Structure formats: C-alpha cells, structure tokens
Amino acid sequence: MSIPEEPVTALGPDVNKPKDNSVNILPVDQDLTSPPVPCCTLDISGAEQERLVRMFKALGNPTRFEIMKYLVTHPGCITGDIVDFVPLAQATVSQHLKVLREAGWITGEIEGPAICYYLNEENITWFREKVGDIF
C-alpha cells in the first residue's frame, strides 16, 4: 500500500491547493499563539441585558416582525388594520401586540374605542445604540 504524497480529504486531494499553485503565507503580524482579536465586546449585563434580550426575543417571531414592518409604513393603525394585514384572529394579533408593547417596541394610544399603535422611537434608538456598542 502506498502513502499519498499529499493529504487526501473527503473533498479530494487538491481541496486546499490554490488554483494558481501559489503558496499561502500568513500575514507577518499574525500571532498564532494568541487568541484572535474579538469582533465585538458583548459588554452588557443586568437590567440592560435583560431589556435587550427581551427586545430581540420579541422580534424573533416572524408574525411580530411582520407587524413591526407594517407599523413602519402605517403608524397609528388600529388592531383591525393589523388583523387585515396579518391574516390571524384578532385575539392572536392582540397577543402579539402585547408582547411587542411589553418588550418596548411599540406604544398604544387610546383614541375613542380603539388603540392606535406606533413604533416607540425612543426605545428603538436605545436598541440601535446598544447593538452598535456591543457589536
């Protein structure tokens, strides 16, 4: 049995070879004994971390994300408008709105018998700043 001259992988013997037969050389300043420079800090904890996680979690649901997209272009709409856009039962939409409100994404203003929903610009600004700070 002969030993292959070059390592063979599941992808074939030439998988790691550059196509132009050049030699890959690491940058001179790259220290292979030290950990890589982190891409972000994730420097957040306590109440701020809980708030950020709650906001991310609320947006993690596809229906709630669609509601947020709708509110960007339809500020001041009522639950019925959202029900027409997201074809779900009114009770289900109301529950999604409650989650978004509790997470700080939206506010609701009572106007007569209805609640008009708006994006909470102050909290959205906070979210953007925190994400920018830690990433």
Give a quick precis of the structure.
With 135 residues, the protein is mainly α. The protein has helices spanning 46-59, 62-73, 79-85, 90-103, 121-134; strands spanning 77-78, 106-111, 114-119. The chain is elongated.
Describe the structure.
- By secondary structure, the chain is mainly alpha-helical.
- The chain has a domain at 46-134: Arc Repressor Mutant, subunit A (Orthogonal Bundle).
- It is 45% helix and 10% strand.
- The chain contains 5 helices and 3 strands, in the order H-H-E-H-H-E-E-H.
- The chain has helices at residues 46-59, 62-73, 79-85, 90-103, 121-134, and strands at residues 77-78, 106-111, 114-119.
- Strands 1-3-2 form a 3-stranded antiparallel β-sheet.
- It is elongated and about 70 Å long.
What is the H-and-E element order?
HHEHHEEH
Query: What is the overall pLDDT average?
Result: 84
Q: Which blocks of ≥5 consecutive residues have pLDDT under 50?
A: none
Instruction: Please identify the structural class as seen in this structure.
Output: mainly alpha
Distance between the termini: 53 Å
The number of helical segments is 5
CATH superfamily grouping of the domain at 46-134: Winged helix-like DNA-binding domain superfamily/Winged helix DNA-binding domain
What is the spatial order of strands in the main beta sheet? 1-3-2
CATH top level assignment of the domain at 46-134:
Mainly Alpha
Beta-strand residue fraction: 5-15%
How many E strands? Answer: 3
Question: Which geometry do the CA atoms define?
Answer: elongated
How big is the Rg?
Answer: 26 Å
Do you know the CATH topology of the domain at 46-134?
Arc Repressor Mutant, subunit A
**For the report, how would you describe the main beta sheet?**
3 strands, antiparallel
CATH architecture grouping of the domain at 46-134: Orthogonal Bundle
Helix content: 40-55%
